[in-house]
Specification:
Residues 275-494 form the Histidine kinase domain. This is histidine kinase. Keywords: ATP-binding, Kinase, Nucleotide-binding, Phosphoprotein, Transferase. Its EC number is 2.7.13.3. Helix content is 50%, strand content 20%. It is α+β, with helices and mostly antiparallel strands. It has four domains: 2-98, no CATH class; 122-230, Beta-Lactamase (2-Layer Sandwich); 236-336; 344-490, Histidine kinase-like ATPase, C-terminal domain (Heat Shock Protein 90, 2-Layer Sandwich). It has a six-stranded antiparallel beta sheet with strand order 5-4-9-8-7-6, sandwiched between helices. Strands 11-13-14-16-15 form a five-stranded mixed beta sheet. It has a three-stranded antiparallel beta sheet with strand order 1-3-2, with helices on one face. Strand 8 (211-219) and strand 9 (223-230) form a beta hairpin. Helix 1 (2-39) packs antiparallel against helix 3, helix 7 runs antiparallel to helix 8 (306-336) and helix 8 runs parallel beside helix 12. The longest helix is centred in the middle third of the chain and has 64 residues, at 232-295. The radius of gyration is 39 Å and the shape is elongated. Mean pLDDT is 78; it is low at 444-454 and 496-501.
């Protein structure tokens, strides 16, 4: 019997350790998922601030931090959850209560096994144990880290430890089992969790808000044992985690609904723009064609020379509108993924040289010089027409906003993991507020500094979309009266990385 009791205690301790640490791991994953949803769309600085604020809700349970390397290792009791480009959230238990609880319950299980062994060895036919056995019970009960009381078959108290006395406010005088139960329940209620041949498990909710777990088990054939443990903090933790799960489900449902709405709105916008573009481009092409015929006086003279100027104005305005609608449709197709980009190996130096050559004449007319940086011999994978359009939009903006006598520099800088293309001008620059507005399409420039009209303000938005579809990123740095620098980071071609021509 002793061997069976100790084997059962060992199995109980092993199972309890597995369940406890598995629950802790799942709880950390759940908390980490909730925190990740709150910060994933934020920039690193805002994410750190939000994480410090949000993690405070779970401060008694975890310590949360943001690490840039998602491969960093957490402790054996911690968790690492990736958060997109921000790195990963590192979660650690604030206190190792789980290990302490396993040790306490394990000690209690082995103490119970010892008590049962003593009971089997020193079993007596009557209900009142001899003094030696009672002293053994008392010694073992004092070593158990939870409330313990041993009773005879008739409910008379054999022995109990101080924790049990404190739980029922017991004085020095003896009490029976039924009196002890009444004191435990006073002002609260008890709920039966499990009952069987090997005892029963009850949960006691007291008037002061505390919660006790009462485990009653047979003590040989002469009596039974009551184990009382305080699970108030565990209940609070379970309540908090339940609230987190509900909030997470609510956020996930809202995110899914908003995502569906956004996708539907994006499809509707693309379809609308496609139909609108067709309905407007067709008559515009007619207007431009007829204006060209009239400008060349194909079917006879127009008469007054001013008519030629009017016709030229009609043609120019139609072409401007046609280009604007083409830009709108192109941006919609890029954002919706309907316009695919090729992936061919391209020499960065040739790409920059081609764009500079294309805009050199326009820059000379505006009194602006174009300078090309040192060659890098780097090769990227991308769509040649798309990347040329991206650089062309940025160079055209630089020409428009750089006064005569200024300079535009096109340069590339290669590194082992990618290439950075930079377009720098000495133009009028932009304020911080203006920079923030550039993240929104259709943000028009200041008309007082443009040379050829504002346009729909989509050049940078199209360039940004092409950069991101090419696996890169676009960033802008500008200061009023000092100029603007636009940097585009692109990955190197996978086959060669960086190579010489």
């Amino acid at each position: 019997m002793a061997a069976t009791a100790f084997l059962a205690a060992a199995l109980f301790t092993a199972y309890d350790a597995y369940r406890t640490f598995d629950d802790q791991r799942r709880h950390l994953e759940l908390i980490g998922s909730a925190l990740a949803q709150e910060i994933i769309e934020l920039d690193p600085q805002s994410a750190l601030t939000r994480l410090d604020h949000s993690a405070g809700r779970f401060a008694p349970i975890i310590q949360a931090s943001l690490v840039s390397d998602s491969t960093s290792a957490a402790s054996p009791f911690g968790q690492m959850l990736p958060v997109g480009g921000l790195g990963a959230i590192k979660l650690e238990p604030a206190q190792n209560d789980a290990a302490a609880g396993v040790m306490q319950r394990g000690a209690g299980a082995f103490a119970i096994a010892a008590l049962m062994s003593f009971a089997a060895l020193r079993r007596r036919p009557n209900d009142d144990p001899d003094p030696a056995l009672k002293q053994s019970y008392r010694t073992l009960a004092a070593a158990i880290p939870m409330g313990v009381a041993c009773w005879t078959r008739t409910g008379e108290l054999i022995v109990c430890n101080q924790q049990y006395r404190d739980s029922i406010d017991m004085e020095d005088r003896e009490v029976t089992y039924h009196q002890a139960v009444k004191r435990l329940i006073a002002g609260g209620y008890m709920k039966l969790l499990r009952e069987g041949d090997n005892g029963r498990l009850l949960e006691l909710h007291r008037e002061d808000g505390s919660c006790l777990l009462i485990d009653e088990r047979p003590l040989g054939s002469d009596g039974f044992m009551t184990l009382v443990s305080d699970i108030t903090e565990a209940k609070k933790t379970d309540t908090l985690l339940h609230a987190i799960r509900e909030e997470q489900r609510h956020l996930a449902r809202r995110y899914h609904e908003e995502k569906l709405k956004a996708e539907a709105a994006s499809r509707a916008k693309t379809n609308f723009l496609a139909h609108l573009s067709h309905d407007i481009r067709t008559p515009l092409n007619h207007i431009i064609g007829f204006a060209d015929l009239m400008r060349h006086e194909t079917y006879g003279a127009l008469g007054d020379k001013r008519y030629l100027e009017y016709v030229q104005s009609i043609k120019s305005s139609g072409e401007h509108l046609l280009a604007s609608f083409a830009s709108i449709l192109e941006l919609a197709e890029l954002e919706s993924g309907q316009k695919g980009l090729r992936s061919d190996p391209l020499l960065v130096d040739d790409l920059i040289e081609g764009v500079a050559q294309r805009f050199r004449t326009q820059a000379q007319r505006a009194g602006v010089g174009i300078v090309i940086g040192a060659p890098t011999q780097a090769i990227v994978e991308g769509d040649k027409l798309g990347l040329t359009r991206m650089l062309g939009n940025l160079v055209e903006n630089a020409i428009r906003f750089t006064p005569a006598g200024g300079r535009i520099t096109l340069a590339a800088f290669a590194a082992p993991d990618g290439v950075v293309l930079e377009i720098t001008d000495t133009g009028i620059g932009m304020s911080e507020e203006r920079l923030q507005s550039l993240s929104q399409p259709f943000a028009l420039g200041d008309a007082t500094f443009t040379r050829e009209g504002g346009g729909p303000g989509l050049g940078i938005s199209i360039a940004r979309a092409i950069a991101e579809l090419s696996g890169g990123h676009l960033a802008i740095d500008s200061s009023p009266a000092l100029g603007t620098t636009v940097a585009i980071s692109l990955p190197l071609a996978a086959m060669d990385g960086r190579m010489a021509a």
